[in-house]
Write a structure and sequence with these properties.
Blueprint (H helix, E strand, L loop, with lengths): L11 H5 L3 H37 L24 H11 L4
Length: 95
Amino acid sequence: MAIKIKIPRAKGFRGSLKSPFVRAGLAAFLIVCICLFGVFSYYYVKYQKIVEKKMSGQIFANTAKIFAAPASIGLGDVNTPEAIAAELRRSGYTE
């Protein structure tokens, strides 16, 4: 007569999926991942449209193109506001 010894086997991945706690945890994890992916996708598309809109036109149309030191205006100098505005427009400033 032979003696049979039963060796317990590890449950493995399939055995752990039978537990309701593991299934609930896995389901919760998947739901959270799907929600986060949805939020990320929404904001990605939203800001992609904003950037595309701004990049489609002239990007540097309203930037100041100033490459030199500004002209100094001191107390007692004779200047009119129109002359100062004309100097700023010549320098590249826009309204």
